[in-house]
Write a structure and sequence with these properties.
Helix content is 0%, strand content 54%. By secondary structure, it is an all-beta fold. Strands 2, 4, 5, 6, 9, 10 and 11 form a seven-stranded mixed beta sheet that branches. Strands 1-3-8-7 form a four-stranded antiparallel beta sheet, with no helix packed on it.
């Protein structure tokens, strides 16, 4: 099992920045990739960004490309999401997730979520 704990959410005005953290514990050696997802009120959960834990290959959703930066610290077993130029439409609960398989894009572990609110 892998446990994930997010932190760093909060409220910010449009144009501001926040940095989310996701601390992993447990059987982290089994993790192949980690990612960030978000769910806005009344909407489906959507992919934000992901990173391959060993090689660092990164993917972003078009909606956040150029504004958000994903990174990880292997020694601290922590993933980050630096969010700049935030917009009201970025308001959502943000979740981190981890998956073990390199071939099946199904996330096995999820954090509890952290709220991000962007006011106009």
């Amino acid at each position: 099992q892998v446990q994930l704990v997010e932190s760093g959410g909060g409220s910010v005005q449009a144009g501001g920045s926040l940095r989310l953290s996701c601390a992993a514990s447990g059987r982290t050696f089994s993790v192949y990739s980690m990612g960030w997802f978000r769910r806005a009120p009344g909407k489906e959960r959507e992919f934000v960004s992901s990173i391959i834990w060993s090689g660092g290959d990164i993917t972003y959703a078009d909606s956040v490309q150029g504004r958000f930066t994903i990174s990880r610290d292997n020694a601290k077993k922590t993933m980050y999401l630096q969010m700049n130029s935030l917009k009201p439409e970025d308001t959502a609960v943000y979740y981190c997730a981890a998956r073990n398989s390199a071939f099946v894009v199904k996330y096995d572990y999820w954090g509890q979520g952290t709220q991000v609110t962007v006011s106009s």
